Structure formats: C-alpha cells, structure tokens
Amino acid sequence: MAIKPNCIVCGIIENKIPSKKVYEDDLVLAVLDVNGANAGHCFVMPKNHYSILEQVPDIEIGRLFQASNKISSAIFESLGAQGTNIFVTNGVPAGQTVAHFTINVIPRKENDGINLQWQPKQMSEEEMSTVELKLKEQTKNIGYFEKEEKKPRIHAPKQVVLSEEEEEYFTKQMRRLP
Amino acid sequence: MAEQPQLSPEQLKALQERIKQMSPEELKEFQKKQCVFCQIVAGKVQSKKIYDDDKVLAILDINPANPGHVLLVTKEHYAIMPQIPDDEVAHVFMAAKSLSNSMLKSIDAQGTNIIVANGIAAGQRAQHFMVHIIPRKENDGINFVLPQKEMPQNEIEAVGNKLIAALVGAAEEEKPVIPAKIPEPKREEPKKESKKSEAETKQETRSSINLDDISKMLGVK
User: Fold this and answer.
1) Which of A29, A107, A116, B83 has the smallest CB count inside 10 Å?
2) Which residues in chain A touch residue B172, judged by CB atoms under 8 angstroms apart?
3) What is the pTM of this model?
4) ipTM
C-alpha cells in the first residue's frame, strides 16, 4: 500500500484515526462521514494514496465505483433514502479539500438542504462546436481500459445436515420423479 | 427536454394496461422509444458526440454548467445506477476518468466534478442513467452546497450497522462475492515498500504537467 505520511485519509486507512467502517476489501475502504451532509453519508476511498482521479489506475477506479454503487444500493435499502448522489470533487477549484481521492455517496431526501444543481450557461452554437472539437481531439486516444482478471473464487460447499425426517421426505420426493 | 403530452385519465389507464401486457422484450423497446437518451444512442436525436464505445456514449450537455460539460450515458437503458451490472459500472467510470483527463488537457479545466443522481430527490431529471462530468475553474460561479451536520457517535454507529447489514446481505445473495467487510487489524507494511511504490506513482504521473499542477494545488509535493 502506498501510504502518504500526514495524509488524514491514509491515517484513517491505517487505523490511526478512528472511523466507522462500512466496507473494506484489499483496495477500497468506505467509512461514514462524521460531519455528513445527511445521516449515512459515506466516503469511499482507495487504500493507496492518490491525490486526484487521473492518478488512480483503471482497476482501482472500477473497484471504487462498484463499491460506491453497492453502498448506494444499501442506502436505498436500509436507510429509506429517496435518492442517492455519487459526487466527486477533483481538484481544488472543484471543491476538493483533502489531498486523497475520495468518492462521496450521499443519501438524499427532498428538501434536505443539499444543492448539487447549477445554472445552465448560455453558449452559442459556435462555442459548442469549438469545445466539441477540442475535446474530441483528446478523446481519440481513449480506448483501452485495464481489466481486472477474474480470479476463480473457491467456495466451500454448504454443509447441510438433514434430520432423519427430512431425509425420508427428500427420498420420497425423489421416488416420485419419473 | 420536450414536454410530455398530458394524457387523459382514460388514456393513462389504457396505456398502463398496455404496458402490463407487454413481454419483457416489448417493454424494453417501448422504454427505448420513450427515452430521449436511448434515441440519442440510436442516433435518432442529434447530439455532439465526444466519445463512444461498445458500452457508453459521451455527449456535450446542451444546458452546460460550464463549457465542456459532458454527459456520459450507458448505451443500454438503465434508470438508476443500482441496476447496472458490476463490470459495466467499472467501464463507465474508467471512461469518466479518461474524459475528465481530456478536459484537463484540452480545455484548460483546473478540476472536474463527477455527479450521479439516483432518484428525483437527488436531482435526477431523465429516465436514463448518466454521469455528469463538469470541467471546473476557479470562480466559475458554480457553488455546490454540502451542509455539514453534526452526528452523535451513537447515531453514526447505528446508521453504520444498518449499512453493514445491508451490504453483507447483498454480498451473500450474489455468487461471486466481494468479501463482506471484515474490519480486521491492519497489518504493518514495511516502510521501504511504501516509499518505493509512492515513487512509482509519481513517475507514472510525471509525464503530464497538468496533473502535477492540479495535485500541487492540494498541497501535495
């Protein structure tokens, strides 16, 4: 794990700062925000230290957002949320305050005081076309994403112990089959 | 977006009946016809395409928060993110990362926001899952508000445990289980190794000037 000294998020990952963990695997950790925008607001972060999105390798991006999606589903299911936001602030002008890439997963209810809306900016057709061309020039190079190799996961078969009665029932059932 | 035509109660009832009797395939087709973004994916509605592969399409938002605001949509119709299979989720956000990177490089963005809204209460407006990728500059007039609510420790514990129960339950239902969270004591990593991998990370990103500038703003050496 690439840990950065003095990084508060790395401190959480190393258990030096206490936190309420809700999900953890080899690459990802998710904790509850103590000053959340709503109860159940979670931070999902890579265990390796990266400061911005572009530094996070593809495989870790995949795992981070899969975990965020699972947490979002759990928020719907267990907290009775009416909606969820997945929100990333990437870079200081975008509102990032901690130098460790983090995904916010936020439970939503109507009129909860959170505002992730914007005023649309007026753009001429020409301006739109210029932006389109500039972006397209860059996105030409996109195309290959790293894929995680699926390792076979071995599951121990469940041991089912049947009582005599049950066993008899199942045998009878089998006899009925043609 | 075009206004939905108002239906009379009878028409609405007839429509609901029709939908009930549809086979899953017919229902999928019907949904596609109703959804603007499925029409865009099919090329029946015009858009400014930025990126496109077998699973996703990125277009310019016609009501942008900032110039270069991109909507990344799945080609398959999903209403909300929890419906999307895992490998597609991974693909969508790898594409989002590449698009964000393109913004930093081509249109002088100093940062980006990535926003997904699931449900109307979260600000979702279209019936089709999408990721907003918004290029940001200092003082660009965008102000996202995330209030900070003080939560007592016992409430954090209670909410956390509810989430854990739901996550463990979901993991048990699936077959290829992502290991249900087990907060075990951290193993000590040798410091040498962590330093090395840090240097590696740095080297990887050194090639791009923009990325370094952006992380420098966060106070990272």
Assistant:
1) B83
2) none
3) 0.78
4) 0.82
